[in-house]
Design brief:
The protein is an alpha+beta fold. It is built from 34 helices and 38 strands. Helix 1 packs across helix 34.
Length: 956
């Protein structure tokens, strides 16, 4: 019954989509006087994406000649541009490449543009893959299945032959090695395959930081003093001479050590003195990251920036325009170790949303400095022969900071300081909130518009493609006259709310952004992104009743497009306040207009460019009561993406239901029960004879832990719970912060000390057993749960190692228990279990925040391999999940984390999340794609929305 209910919902949804009228989406743009909707037509890609993306075949089908449904009909009307998106590669950034590919495909696919997906593995083998595989969290999710699920190519010539027949132009989104060093470009050039981006020789020159620095210096740019280390005996005397030349103390002089050819984030570290520099440089060489290592002076007192460059020239004429640059500000909050004080903008800070970094677009620099940055980056782009687009990183140093440079250097010296360009990224990251989209949205480009513009520009280099009218020709200008509320007929209103106070508020921002972008694919929806503003003090959901009282004092901001694309909720809030500050708003407007004028100067020759599609709107602040009343007035459905706190404990649900406003997810009572992990166990305890087990728990107050001798507490806990090792977690917080395995009283002592000192994180391997970074709740929770740590067998996933059966999964199966996570979806009493995912930990015993939510990390096996769990046990497991969901009176959707016995299908419940993560790499998407037929992300989120809209009747 539950399965039929889900299938019926999706069938009806697809029927409605196929009957939809041409898109005329509206951008919700309230102002301080009256709330209005501002109409603007979407790109042709967006308008048809909800119909065209559902058609690609499931991963289990052959990927040869995959045809998007409706493409043949479109061919009769006009040319369909066939784009091949190539991702993966051998570098450590291959997971980020997968994220970029997913984002590109989501935003360019349409009736006039068909996308094929290709993947390069770590051994440089090429595969044609199903679109479903692109939504995997990490390449490791499907690397071991490539031989059975993908079309492999025996040689580059075979791959090129396939591309020549099946695509018109290739869009490489491989970051780092083989993507930005000229590798893939050289292959494509050899076989005359058109592609987006810079040519192979120019890539090779710009990607090598040492060679690029020499080239920039030759062209008159100020550069950072550096020394090359290559693992030879000559390194030490040359580096010693360099230290002396730059007046650095050989025993303690601070420098940056980084690979010369490994992208902008991998292997970058800080060193002190000559000996430490050589040790860290040689470590990079030994680890195989790169054989060339750069040692640079540490730029103290400066501000880092990054700038997107867009080429709007016609044909072979280069006309680079630099968008509004972004200032990168590292932040140090709470208690941190000494190492954090010397932090740099590394891989973790770039790709994981924490308060360790904040972005400011445009930078908080003097306006003439910003213009000099733009001018210099444009000159650099042109002189190095770059094409289509790039991202250029650098530093602005005030006059108080001295930088040795050649007297011939003329680019970079200004009256207010020095501008240096340090990294050239030939294939900028294209994740949903990447710098490319942040900066593009500031000047009026949506995701689809900027990506299609880049593709169109690349087509101009190839005569047989340049003759096309372009793939963005149906994109009209945004209408300038906003319509009043009386004219809002014909569309359903959706308020997507995210943010809040809990330690998972940054993940909430990722979830809300992803939901907002996916729901924009539908003609009949008006989707407004909304920030539940953080309060002065963060919350760990310790007192639900107090939350209900405090909730009435909360504020919500409605957000324009560009303000959503930020790194943290604090950054979004600061941007809202900044946006309505008159002087800052005037400066941003002035710079925006300059960039737009520069762009239009180049675009006037391009027939395919028909305008910008995002208005420069202002955010609007509401009390939560005003916001809910507005939702009721316009008959909006609220899509809740607030993790933990009032978003998950029933408080927000109670406020909405009191006004008759429909919302996604379970109702008030189910939310309250599931938020309290102890109450969840009590509610399920009677199911033990039916195959649903719960874990014994002991709840302790934080102040009790701080005041009681730790050995006594450890003895009490292990005796009561009858175990040797413990798992500790916040009682009423999310599922990924503050969770740790404790093996002895020393571990407990360290954990309690972290609570006492309000640490934001416990560094890797601080406890007795190996573990990754442990993000801690802020502020520390008042209540903590202790439970026995459940031992499971390690599962090793490898693309190289195979067991005796030829499989790439290594699992001993001694305990017969594995950890799973399962999405449940449907109406109350008829919940349907999606296919479970086996969670594989990459380090330690507890899934880290990165492994759960950061795209490109963490491994999920969806569906579970038959070599681990039998079909019968899997079906029993799914039945148990549905029984759990129906017992707890869940509805809409939720996620259940548990252990499952691979022989019997019995489950041991860990916790139930009523507002699970909905990030681009969420496991729920993998599970929806495993359905038959596969359910793609926009369809999945639309189904959740429709379930919410159907269940509540408005109170008149």
């Amino acid at each position: 019954m539950a399965s039929v209910a889900l299938g019926s919902t999706l069938t009806l949804l697809r029927a409605n989509q196929n009957d939809a009228a041409p898109h005329k989406p509206l951008i919700f743009t309230p102002n301080l006087n009256s709330l209005r909707f501002n109409h603007s037509l979407r790109t042709h890609a967006s308008s048809t994406r909800c119909r065209s993306v559902e058609a690609p075949r499931a991963a289990s089908e052959a990927v040869e000649d995959v045809i998007v449904e409706g493409v043949e009909e479109v061919k009769e009307k006009g040319r369909v541009l066939r784009v091949g998106v190539v991702c993966g590669g051998p570098s450590a950034e291959r997971g980020i490449s997968l994220n970029s590919a997913r984002s590109v495909i989501d935003h360019i696919q349409g009736e006039d543009l068909h996308v094929s997906c290709y993947y390069i593995d770590s051994e440089l083998n090429a595969f044609a893959i199903s679109p479903a595989q692109v939504y995997s969290n990490t390449p490791a999710d499907f690397d071991f299945k490539l031989e059975s699920l993908a079309q492999g190519f025996k040689s580059w010539s075979d791959f090129a032959d396939h591309l020549a027949v099946n695509v018109d132009i290739v869009f490489p989104v491989i970051h780092g090695q083989f993507g930005e060093d000229g590798g893939i470009q050289e292959v494509l050039e050899r076989y005359n395959i058109p592609f987006v981006g810079t040519g192979s020789n120019e890539c090779r020159q710009a990607f090598d930081k040492y060679n690029a620095s020499l080239e920039l210096s030759r062209h008159g740019f100020v550069t950072v003093p550096s020394c090359l280390v290559e693992g030879s005996e000559a390194d030490e005397p040359e580096l010693s001479e360099w230290f002396a030349k730059n007046q650095l103390d050989p025993s303690s002089g601070k420098v940056v050590v980084k690979p010369a050819r490994a992208g902008s984030s991998i292997g970058v570290t800080v060193a002190y003195g000559l000996a430490d520099s050589l040790v860290k440089a040689n470590a990079i060489i030994i680890e195989g990251i790169d054989s060339k290592v750069l040692v640079e002076i540490f730029l103290e007192g400066g501000s880092e920036f990054t700038a997107i460059v867009l080429d709007v020239g016609y044909g072979t004429d280069s006309h680079p325009v630099v968008l509004l640059p972004t200032e990168v500000e590292l932040q140090f909050l709470g208690s941190v170790d000494v190492g954090e004080k010397d932090a740099i903008f590394n891989y973790r800070r770039k790709y994981l949303p924490t308060q360790q970094v904040a972005y400011h677009t445009p930078p908080r620099f003097p306006i003439d400095v910003i213009e000099n940055i733009r001018d210099g980056a444009s000159q650099l782009f042109k002189r190095l022969g770059l094409r289509d687009f790039a991202r250029i990183d650098g530093w602005f140093l005030p006059n108080s900071v001295h930088v040795p440079s050649s007297p011939d250097s003329k680019f970079g010296r200004t009256e207010k300081g020095t501008i240096l360009y340090t990294d050239i990224n030939l294939i900028s990251g294209m994740e949903q909130t990447s710098f490319l989209f942040q900066q593009a949205s500031k000047v009026g480009f949506s995701h689809a518009n900027i990506l299609r513009g880049i593709i169109n520009h690349a087509c101009l280099r190839f005569p047989h493609l340049a003759s096309c009218d372009g793939v963005s020709g149906d994109l009209p200008r945004t209408l300038k006259s906003p319509l009043l509320k009386d004219d809002w007929e014909g569309t359903q209103k959706v308020f997507v709310i995210f943010g809040g106070d809990t330690s998972e508020r940054q993940v909430s921002l990722m979830s809300g952004t992803n939901v907002w972008l996916n729901l924009q694919a539908f003609d009949d929806l008006e989707v407004l992104p909304c920030l539940l503003a953080p309060t002065n003090g963060n919350s760990s959901s310790n007192d639900v009743d107090k939350n209900e009282v405090d909730a009435t004092s909360r504020t919500v901001w409605s957000l324009p497009y560009s303000l959503v694309l930020r790194h943290t909720t604090e950054e979004v809030l600061a941007a809202c306040v900044e946006a309505i500050e008159p002087d800052r708003a005037a400066l941003t407007s002035q710079l925006r207009n300059r960039v737009i004028n520069d762009l239009m100067e180049g675009f006037k020759k391009h027939s395919w460019f028909t305008g910008f599609d995002i208005n420069d709107e202002l955010p609007v602040k509401f009390s939560i009561e005003e916001w809910i009343k507005l939702a009721k007035e316009v008959k909006a459905t609220v899509f809740i993406a607030v993790h933990g706190g009032i978003g998950e404990d029933g408080t927000l649900q109670s406020l909405l239901e009191a006004e008759g406003v429909p919302h996604t997810g379970p109702g008030v009572l189910a939310s309250k029960i599931c938020m309290d992990k102890v109450a969840t166990s009590v509610a399920l305890k009677h199911l033990s004879d039916l195959g649903v087990l719960t874990i014994n728990k002991d709840v302790r107050r934080r102040d009790e832990l701080l005041s009681t001798p730790i050995p006594n507490v450890w003895h009490e806990l292990t005796s009561k719970l009858q175990c040797e090792t413990l798992c500790v977690k916040p009682a009423r917080d999310g599922c990924s912060t503050g969770v740790a395995r404790l093996c002895c009283d020393g571990d407990l002592s360290m954990y309690v000390k972290a609570l006492e000192d309000c640490l934001l994180r416990i560094p890797p391997n601080s406890l007795s057993k190996e573990h990754g970074m442990i993000e801690m709740p802020n502020p520390p929770p008042e209540l903590l749960i202790f439970e026995p740590f459940i031992e499971t067998d390690d599962i090793i996933v490898s693309s190289k190692s195979m067991n005796e059966n030829g499989h790439h999964l290594m699992w001993k199966g001694q305990s017969r228990w594995v950890e799973i996570t399962v999405g449940v979806i449907g109406k109350q009493g008829l919940m349907h279990s999606l296919s479970p995912s086996i969670t594989v930990k990459e380090s330690g015993d507890i899934l880290s925040l990165e492994e759960k939510f950061q795209g490109g990390t963490g491994i999920n096996l969806t569906p579970p391999p038959s070599s681990i769990i039998s079909h019968e046990a899997l079906q029993k497991c799914k039945q148990n999940m549905e029984m759990i969901a129906n017992t707890l009176e869940l509805e809409g959707f939720s996620r259940i984390d548990a252990f499952v016995n691979v022989d019997s299908g019995e489950v041991l419940v860990i916790e139930v999340n009523t507002v699970p993560g909905m990030t681009p790499s969420t496991v729920l998407i993998h599970q929806a794609l495993a359905e038959e037929p596969p359910v793609y992300p926009h369809q999945f989120f639309r189904t959740l929305l429709d379930l919410a809209s159907e269940r509540t009747i408005y109170i008149s």
